[in-house]
Amino acid sequence: MTKDLGKLWAERMTMGERDMSFPDSEPRDAATLMLIDRSGRMPKVLLGRRHAGHKFMPGKFVFPGGGIELLDRLMPTVSELHPDTERKLLERVAKPAGNFARAFALAAVRETAEETGLLLGVKRDRAPTVPGEIWAEFAKANVHPDLGQIHFIARAITPPRRPRRFDTRFLTADASAIAHTIEGVVGPDSELVELTWVPIEEAANLDMPTITGIVLEELLARVEAGMARHLPVPFYFMIEKQFFRELL
């Protein structure tokens, strides 16, 4: 990864068309998960197409994800985050509460299950002890989340004066982490109407938000660098209508 390439990506973020006429708001912490299949010659990622009737990003291809719920940080797991991953998730955070870092990973795993029907983790003979109904499907399937499988790829904050603002952590896990599939979650009346595995290098041809395309390139760079845990994590944020890219 060169500094020039990182600068180019930040410039692409700045040039993206967006309406910034809305009342300003504080960004909400969120997490999204990029499932990657590296079993073939070309690595592929899983993308879902949002329902055309949604007010927020209708018809766009996105990664599954959403906001953190209070119960996410309480969900038990078979392993915890790698120390480097945990440390980077806590950087540039003013007052992280207890289990703050693991809450991002667990929110991404839960949202992936809710939106795609794919449960990530380890299947065992007994059910995990879940903290509430939002994790019930994992108990039904005897799937225990495994945070050691999670990598931290990028962080981005939605620009000011947008209708919805998020401080999103983009995480990834290998497709081999899929332990169970719930049928019928994706369909014409669901939040995601279809799922598709796409080679990373071809995914930019799909209709997707600018940040999704940029993070896909960040993911490809990380794959080509061997997915090492110590590698820096890019952080995208806007100041005075210009995007910056810093490394965590």
Summarize the structure.
The protein is of the alpha+beta class and about 250 residues long. It has 6 helices and 13 strands.
- The number of distinct helices, counting runs of at least 4 residues, comes to 6
CATH 4th-level superfamily: Nucleoside Triphosphate Pyrophosphohydrolase
- CATH overall fold name: Nucleoside Triphosphate Pyrophosphohydrolase
How many domains would you count in the coordinates? 1
| Spatial gap, N to C terminus | 14 Å
CATH architectural label: Alpha-Beta Complex
Gyration radius, rounded: 17 Å
Q: Strand percentage, roughly?
A: 25-35%
Number of β-strand runs? 13
Helix residue percentage: 25-40%
Just give the CATH class: Alpha Beta
**Spans with pLDDT under 50 lasting ≥5 residues?**
none
Shape assignment: globular
- Biggest pleated-sheet summary: 9 strands, mixed
Order of helices and strands: HEEEEHHEEHEEEEEHHEE
Q: What is the averaged pLDDT score?
A: 89
| Structure class | alpha+beta
Written account of the structure:
By secondary structure, the protein is of the alpha+beta class. It has one domain (3-247): Alpha-Beta Complex (Nucleoside Triphosphate Pyrophosphohydrolase), CATH 3.90.79. Helix content is 25%, strand content 28%. The strands form three sheets. Strands 1, 2, 3, 4, 8, 9, 11, 12 and 13 form a nine-stranded mixed β-sheet that branches. The model has no long low-confidence stretch (mean pLDDT 89).
